[in-house]
Automatic annotation (TrEMBL):
Protein name: TetR family transcriptional regulator
Every HTH tetR-type domain range: 19-79
Keyword DNA-binding annotated: yes
Keywords of this entry: DNA-binding
Positions of the DNA-binding region: 42-61
Region (Disordered): 211-237
Amino acid sequence: MTEHRRSSENGATEDRRVRRTRTRLTEALLELMKSKPVDRITVTELTERADVNRVTFYSHYGNVRALLDTVMDEVTVSCRSRIETHADQIIAGDFLPLATDILTYVDEHEQVFSVMVSSAGEVLFNRLADDIRDVCNRVVDPVSQAVESTGERLGDAELRRAEMIRDYQFDYIMGGIMNVVRNWFAGGRREPIEFVAAILASTTRAAGPESLRRNLSLAQKGPEEGETAGKNRRTAK
C-alpha cells in the first residue's frame, strides 16, 4: 500500500514537471513568434528563453515546428468541440452562444491568440480557419440547409457552384471575425465579451445562412454568365 502510494505520488510529481516544462516551452515559442517567423526560431534560443535544456526539449518534441503543431492541435480541437456543441443553435440561426463561447476561450488563451492576430500569426490563423471550415461543412452543412429552406433542387454542377459560393462567404466571414478580434486585442479588450459576441453573431447571421440562401440563384446561373458579361463589357470599350 505504501509503495503504491509512493509510486502514485512520484507519477503525479512527474506529470506536473512535464506540464511545467511544456508550458514554459510553449510560452517561450509564442513570445519569440511575436518578433520572427517560426521557421527562423532555433531550438537553442527557444530552450534558452524557456530555461530548459536541449535534451529535455528533444524528449518532448522533434523540432520547433512539432511544438507549434501541438499548440495548434490543442486550439483547433477546442474550437472544433465548441462548434459541435453549438451545432443545433447554429443551424437554427442563433450564433450568439458560439460567439460567446469562442471569445471566452480566446480571452482565456491570450498568449496564443495575440500571436495569431499579429502579422506573424497569419499561418496559424489560416490553419485554424481551414479546420473550422471543415467542421462547419461537416456538422452544420450550410449548403444542404440553404437548399432545403428554399425548396430548390440543384444538379451536380449547381451543387458544386453552391459549395464554391459557401467557401467564398466563409472566407469573407472569417476575415471579418479575424479583424474584429485583432482590433479587440489591440484596444486592450476593453469591451465586454458579450458586447463583441453580439456584434459577431448578428453579422455572421446576416452574411452566413441568409446570404447563402439568396446567393443560390448564382449557383443556378453559374460563373460563366458573369465571365461572358465581363468580356462583353471589355469588347464594348
